[in-house]
Amino acid sequence: MSAIRRKPTSSNADQELLIEGHPKDEKEKEEQKPDIRGDRRNIAILLFLYVLQGIPIGLIAAIPMLLQNRGASYKQQAEFSFAYWPFSLKLLWAPIVDSLYVRRFGRRKSWLVPVQYLLGAFMLLLSLHVDRWLGGNGVDPNVPLLTLLFFLLNFLAATQDIAVDGWALTMLKRCNVGYASTCNSVGQTAGYFLGYVVFIALESKDFCNTYLRDVPLEEGMITLPRFLWFWGITFVVATTLVAIFKKENDIEDAHMDARYTEEHELNIHESYKILWDMVRMRPVQILAAILLTVKVTFAASDAVTSLKLIDAGVPKDKLALLAIPLIPLQLILPLAVGRYTNGPRPMDVYLKAIPYRIIMATVATGLAYVTPYIIRGGEVPVYYYVLLITSYAIYQVFLYSMFVAAMAFFAKISDPAVGGTYMTFLNTLCNLGGNWPNTVVLWLVDVLTWKQCTTNAENTCQGKEQQQSCEASTGKCEITFDGYYLESGICVLYGIVWLLLVRKWIVYLQDLPVRSWLVVKQKGR
Asked: Which residues cross the membrane (predicted)?
């Protein structure tokens, strides 16, 4: 691809532009009220692009449930969890997406169009072979290959996110840019819902036979290959339409004068230099250590509990459908919590939420423990689902309290001269802090779990050979000690100690003056 780099500007000029801004323009921007005339189609396009982005994200969340039902080990689940990582790492290549493009085709379309074509192609490729790679019926799943392919799928979705986020700023009028975040949250949530909840429900023969069919059949209404094929075609068709009919900065647009026609961005070298300057700042280093370690406390609960519930007999489609009544709560919580985090000390809410989230994580572990005793003969009582939804809803309250408080703190401390890069950097640390503990605890479940064959006490069912030997002797590998509960206990104890040791550092960071976080000031030294 022939690429055109932005014309470099001097570092000082960039800083002056970013720091001083355009007071007149800012004043006009504040005075403008949202006016969607001329932007209705653009808002619809943005919403649709974010829906497409949510499809692979939701689908990747559904794969572990399919793997669990097909006999995947927790080490294999840990391996597949790397497929979640691209959205946590996208800052590494975001400056490239922002700076390299074909001018005639459009700055954002130069990436959006080929990336979405690749997304469609990947889905079509997966639709041909994914059933075989998932295993089942005595065939082991090909987890390394699945991890690689879904990692690449998520990498493309993350790259599409970078392009769409940037395009939203110039596609909409200045007074309507606020709608971009709405399109992002609503569209991505809708796409995730389609890729995860809807797929899991319609893929389940039990759900379809119970609620959607008069005559029971041996499979769901859709299969993973059909689902991938449909969305692969959708991506290709939608991308073709965008490539042909949607232009960037249309000169015939009657509202062109109300749009951002010029983006003042750092070039590649300057962007990576800013990131390096951030890493060298002492407050950022302390904050990074906090963000990268706090979620170890909740890793066992967040990463393993749902899989343990499936092992205990909770149908995966019912587990996925539990997300539906929680959607209104997840929409309301950020607004409700925001009332308490908009002040000068948002991290006070963060600190107050941690003990309650630890308690609810412990409750989740207890719920996983009693589940096998509640489910008898494959029947799950209604009161169990009520208990599950209630505990999860309460957990969400404290999860969102921490999330919203952290976002408010990031907004407070981010250097306005490089606000977008600063916020993305802190969000990356926050996401990484959740991904690596989840991968580790998933991998350790099998390591810490002890098993024994029912027909041979010397057979500890470690590895495929011993498991097959046990099955050949008409035995069954039974768990004598479940490492999940040991992990849960360690995580809770870790969280208590972490909170006692780190609380003072969080208070210290919150009390620092805003100038301590200015990266441009650091550059000037």
From this structure: 43-63, 83-102, 111-130, 142-164, 227-245, 319-337, 349-370, 382-411, 484-502
Residue 450, classed as helix, strand or coil, is strand
Instruction: Name the residue with higher pLDDT: 479 or 354.
Output: 354
Q: What is the pTM of this model?
A: 0.79
Give the domains, in start order, of the chain with CATH numbers. Answer: 37-264 (1.20.1250.20), 266-525 (1.20.1250)
Quickly list H helices, 375-418: 382-413
- Rg of the chain on CA atoms, in Å: 25
Report the alpha-carbon distance of residue 99 to residue 248 in Å, rounded. Answer: 16
Which residues on adjacent β-strands are paired with residue 477?
453
DSSP string over 89-150: HGGGTHHHHHHEE-TTT-TTHHHHHHHHHHHHHHHHHHHHHHHHHH-BTTBPP-HHHHHHHH
Structure-token pair, residue 134:
């998932």
Largest Cα separation within the chain, whole Å, is 82
CA atoms within 13 A on the CB side of 233: 6
For residues 42 and 39, give the distance between their C-alpha atoms in angstroms, rounded to a whole number. Answer: 5
Q: Which pair of structure tokens corresponds to residue 78?
A: 């840990």
Crossing angle of helices 109-134/224-245, nearest 10°? 170
